[in-house]
Amino acid sequence: MRKLASGALTGILAVGALTACAQEPGAGPSKADEASGKVAFLMPDLASTRYEQYDAPLFKKRMAELCADCGVIYQNANGDASLQQQQANSAMAQGAKVIVINPVDSAAAATIVQTAQSQGVKVVAYDRPIPNKPADFYVSFDNEAIGASIAQSLVDHLKETKAKGGVLQINGSPTDAAAGLIKKGIHSAVDSSGFELLAEYDTPGWSPERAQQWASGQIAQYRGRIAGVVAANDGTGGGAIAAFKAADVNVPPVTGNDAELAAIQRIVSGDQYNTISKPIRIVAEAAADVVHQLLRGEEPKADKKLFNTPSQLFEPTVVTRKNLKEVVFGPDAVLSTKDVCTTQYAADCRRLGIR
């Protein structure tokens, strides 16, 4: 795993230096020329804002820096695995030489890998792994470490505050292998914590609405017994928080993951306990670098193998009120205090020394 600086925030750091692809006059075919071609960048859903706001633009920008001739075909499947299959087929029909895919359904994506590789098209799994059919490469943050980090952070806080009661666990989508890894990481911290796991839920499609509905039922069943909620991402965590507020019950510490703007604001206000800062620039650029190497016929360097796939995994950073100012507002950050500290959150920002 590669350590990241604590000042990183999801998808908002500046991109790296320009790498030219031009051929020198009089020279033979260059490595850069060999890298020309189309690349597909297939994202899974619109439930999370990150894919449209960060992943796709950052990947496209890095590819343009590496090779001006490497056109990017971007598609979002909006949570539809069948549509993602169609998008992959369409990209291959358009001549894509490499497909970067964050799968809607990790099991179903095995068919995409099989079809692509049979046609000589390389596949890079992005963010979510594809366990049943090894891709050519996998780029992601360490999802199991994410789950362990957010859960252990919550457990430590509950012990420090001498909280009483049990924990709810809201996992991600059951069709997402990354969610399974996060779930495994959460259990590694919760199961040995001494806090009772009251109930857990696998959230279809990572839907905040479904997470809220489930949490509402648990609040009614375990009223007065819920010490904390381990939610696998900011969307499901936000759904849980909404459920407590709708029930007019004090919101216990709730975790998250992705460092979305709304989650950062909830941490500022005290509604959400933690999140994970995953600088999407890191994985988006790493994926582009891997694609460029594959197009040039090179073998990308892997840190380890996961699901029999050469993988490059990055270590995330837990964000709480204690380190939010340091992590969120670095000198290279695009997200400003103006973005976070709107009128509703201005007083809380001042209390945290954020101006």
From TrEMBL:
InterPro entries: Bact_Solute-Bind_Prot2, Peripla_BP_I, SBP_2_dom. GO terms for molecular function: carbohydrate binding. Residues 1-22 form the signal peptide. It is found in: Cell envelope. SUPFAM superfamilies: Periplasmic binding protein-like I. The keyword Signal applies. This is Substrate-binding domain-containing protein. PROSITE patterns: PROKAR_LIPOPROTEIN (PS51257). Residues 39-299 form the Periplasmic binding protein domain. Keywords: Signal. It comes from the Bacteria. GO terms for cellular component: outer membrane-bounded periplasmic space. Pfam families: Peripla_BP_4. The keyword Signal applies.
